[in-house]
Amino acid sequence: MALEGVMRPGHAQVRVLDLDASITFYRDVLGLVETGRDAQGRVYFKCWDERDHSSYILREAESAGIDFLGFKVRDEATLDAFEKKLADAGLDPVSVPAGDLLETGRRVQFTLPSGHLIELFATKTCVGNGIPTLNPGPWNEQSEKGIAPVRFDHALLYGPNIAEVKRIFIEVLGFYLVERVLGEDGSTEVALWLSCGQKVHDIAFVEYPEPGKLHHCSFLMDSWEKVLRAGDIMSQNTVSVDIGPTRHGITRGCTIYAWDPSGNRFETFQGGYYPYPDYEPLTWTWEAFPQGLDYPQRKLHETFLTVVT
Amino acid sequence: MALEGVMRPGHAQVRVLDLDASITFYRDVLGLVETGRDAQGRVYFKCWDERDHSSYILREAESAGIDFLGFKVRDEATLDAFEKKLADAGLDPVSVPAGDLLETGRRVQFTLPSGHLIELFATKTCVGNGIPTLNPGPWNEQSEKGIAPVRFDHALLYGPNIAEVKRIFIEVLGFYLVERVLGEDGSTEVALWLSCGQKVHDIAFVEYPEPGKLHHCSFLMDSWEKVLRAGDIMSQNTVSVDIGPTRHGITRGCTIYAWDPSGNRFETFQGGYYPYPDYEPLTWTWEAFPQGLDYPQRKLHETFLTVVT
Amino acid sequence: MALEGVMRPGHAQVRVLDLDASITFYRDVLGLVETGRDAQGRVYFKCWDERDHSSYILREAESAGIDFLGFKVRDEATLDAFEKKLADAGLDPVSVPAGDLLETGRRVQFTLPSGHLIELFATKTCVGNGIPTLNPGPWNEQSEKGIAPVRFDHALLYGPNIAEVKRIFIEVLGFYLVERVLGEDGSTEVALWLSCGQKVHDIAFVEYPEPGKLHHCSFLMDSWEKVLRAGDIMSQNTVSVDIGPTRHGITRGCTIYAWDPSGNRFETFQGGYYPYPDYEPLTWTWEAFPQGLDYPQRKLHETFLTVVT
Amino acid sequence: MALEGVMRPGHAQVRVLDLDASITFYRDVLGLVETGRDAQGRVYFKCWDERDHSSYILREAESAGIDFLGFKVRDEATLDAFEKKLADAGLDPVSVPAGDLLETGRRVQFTLPSGHLIELFATKTCVGNGIPTLNPGPWNEQSEKGIAPVRFDHALLYGPNIAEVKRIFIEVLGFYLVERVLGEDGSTEVALWLSCGQKVHDIAFVEYPEPGKLHHCSFLMDSWEKVLRAGDIMSQNTVSVDIGPTRHGITRGCTIYAWDPSGNRFETFQGGYYPYPDYEPLTWTWEAFPQGLDYPQRKLHETFLTVVT
């Protein structure tokens, strides 16, 4: 009852070109907390206020992009049930044994028609947020080291067949549609924001010819003032900024898009509203999409539609 | 899957002594939107960003307090299922036919061991938030009329037997415990914050000898700056303020407590964090409760423990 | 002693193409308070928290731009003294009799080597900010009508000979240099921010071949959150936005640049620091100017250097 | 011209009971920057964004309180002129040679009829704010160490004869009255806020029978969010909080009052408005003083009137 099934995006594994430079960036500039390195050389991070062992994993590779996005489900029984549902839906789930990712249980992977590898898991070691669970304060020193987002929030993925992707997320995984953009034809959905809880997006998709592309991973900030501070830190560290600070019309969120040293876009954002599954999805026309992207400027930044990894 | 069962506190019916004065207060000072009046003389309000017909209902009476708190569930089938679960749990649910509350479907009521009347419902007319669902802006004029909270957020209720109340909310209604305060004995739970989604509280209880008491109904603000503005408006309208502006240690929320013209306490609050059901509940000792209540001052305001309606 | 001589930018007279459209814009969108119209057809505005009769005056004309910028000095004796100083400095001051501008005393005008008409005045009727001077609240309803800046803050003017302009403002008018940008040669000052009090700028200049040009008039907001709200209102009213929301490196101020219906740029900004005349001016190199303009993005928006009225 | 004469409160020397505990408090909790210790054992601090060597000086003593408050004037010639004016006004100025305070020039001291020792000085070594003057960023790491106020802002002093004190500050030192509170008789000024620039207060006085008392030294924060953060840090360090967070009606400033380990009250505040000497002072009646002190709560906190050092 209440919050069941898929709870949240639990982790993303992202490819970087230069691991050392990336570790420095994600630890010192974005301000994630490093929590481990595995035998494959992958480096694990979490945001300061997250309690699970890791939410953002770096793998050194020849090209940037996302390896997979993993959602944490309520428990192992739920994972088993989803494995069956995925199989019934013809999505050919593959089981990855516990321990392949550090401090993480069994994972069930499948590939979306958009070309993205998605996985579900139920178990990840709770390492806490560095604040005692007895008489906890509201924040700690890690919340001010670097940009220091609160949590890994969501990802926006680019690929083909998002109508089918939407069906899978809604019918198989229990998500609901929060907002959408219609294409120039006035009817095709070309962008989708989907939630599995009360966030305005746990995952989002844009229709795009090339499969498996990452537009951005997004990290939550606590306030608009913290978004400004994020921009200051980006400038102080010569981070390449794409868009913002600004407000999205879509989701109402306030945002900066920037790129990590490998060219993976990331977002530091704040705000939005709290949707529920009984809400009618909000719709943006193609003509209004510039306003949906950059509300004050109503500008369709070309990079938004064309630069992905 | 995902957000199922109970979704949110959908409405509270609150007793006021002077209906006209209360309407003026809730409309012009708190800035709720009036949406209807019924044959019994009840007056219906919603917060500007809520989409359902009503979330706060006034009934004129000899004494202040809360008549009932209603939770909206996912759909009518869910309501039927809960009715059976409540009956199985010996809670003697009573069905109130659709239409008794304006624009609201069938409700299933039951009484908690704390003496509070709780109800579930699945259907309420969507009247929208005054912003089109096509190319919606982030806010509208109503968001600046009076204090103008975003939504009715939760209630804190005082009464006996909250251990049993907790069991019902968790086992029957699918809530989970987010935070709690232990009594002077170091083990008894004397205060509980419970969630059915990702809010730090959808309902809260404090152990109290008298049954059925209301501590406060709470309304969400968008930012700490809006909490300050709420305090300014309270001053401009000679509203009696109890505590704040300040931050709670418990839930991290930033708050002002004040009283409506009938003596019903209400809260305008902001912030907190986003819990999940797999999070270990946070615990406050009795000694730390003053810090949990008023984080900067660490002061156990006497009114918090003694003044209820 | 203390704050003497020139106190502040008191008013700007700006040319607009369509007076009615401009009145609607400045009153309903920017949220200025209209305070009068004169026999010449000029329309007078003030910001809600200003106490003098007017700070922004519209005149209908064939081309957009600024007619003059007026500074309020401490009193009439100070005005007389400045008139003499200006004459001694060879600036040929011209006296405009009291009453030429509504509710405004005698003005002393002179032309800068940059081609701008500047004037000094000592007397303007105090109309108050709409809040009583006895037991005043912190704000009133006018502070939320439209963008509703707190005050007319400064202007940035483009023209030739700014080295000489700087000398006049410092030696004759008692201003001091707060920040400056050096040109590509590493030594010529190409942009200057000057203060006569504790504001980071009461007036600013950029070296530019054409004389008498207006880059923008600037209006102060109370917080970064109010700058966001300004951007939202611009979007809701289809105002053409140039840059922002963002932070300037120069002055630290947080800003949005946009255009009025006639193409006059205006700024809604917030923040910065409080300089004093004993502070060493801050210097920006040409290479760092993009960071000085748009701190997060470090982008030299072309419009900033080329679009003026 | 412009900002002449007295520029600002330049430093306060405050007595503390336990020097080591006080150093720890002011450095690690309030987050001031230690800049030196002298042969007498005094310890010098500045706020992170101040450029002069020191603004807050601790002296170990048997009792808490303030030794003197020093104002920085425009230059040595101004200091000489003030020395003569003070002598002419019968205030018997005494010259303290340069070097008595570290990195500080000659000081001219005199005693107010309220029993407070005030001094003027023109010279103090500029040590900078830790940010280069070439291509400066908006803040640095020191701005996040502890509460980290921007500047020492003002002091509120309690003592007798404030009518005479007011006359001296206005007629001799060139300040102007910004706000005032009238006593129960409706005519006597019992509290005064005075400015020498554009701050809502550079110094303030409350009529009080005991001479030479300190109510609080005040430190400026950048935003209401930073005031909240200050309160969090107070709680984390068990600092004794007096009032707040709240908004003053008087000056509109947002504030927390707390006590240092010796019982000296200090304020972390933000906001207010920018007055000018041509503004009519704002007046608060005795009946409205609770609203002037604590705008949301309209509560006359007893400690405000009775606890001083």
Explain what the structure shows.
Four copies of one chain form a homotetramer. The first copy, chain A, is of the alpha/beta class. In chain A, a hairpin with a 6-residue loop joins β10 and β11. Chain A is globular, with a radius of gyration of 18 Å. The mean pLDDT of chain A is 97. The first copy, chain A, has two domains: 138 residues, 2,3-Dihydroxybiphenyl 1,2-Dioxygenase, domain 1; 157 residues, 2,3-Dihydroxybiphenyl 1,2-Dioxygenase, domain 1 (Roll). Helices cover 19% and strands 35% of the residues of chain A. In chain A, the strands form two sheets. In chain A, strands 14-15-16-13-9-12-11-10-17 form a nine-stranded mixed sheet. An eight-stranded mixed sheet of chain A has the order 2-3-4-1-5-8-7-6. Chain A has six helices and 17 strands. Chains in contact: A-B, A-C, A-D, B-C, B-D, C-D. Chains A and B meet through β1 and β17 of A and β1 and β17 of B.
Q: What keyword list fits this structure?
A:
homotetramer; 309 residues; alpha/beta; 2,3-Dihydroxybiphenyl 1,2-Dioxygenase, domain 1; 2 domains; nine-stranded mixed beta sheet; eight-stranded mixed beta sheet; 6 helices; 17 strands; 19% helix; globular
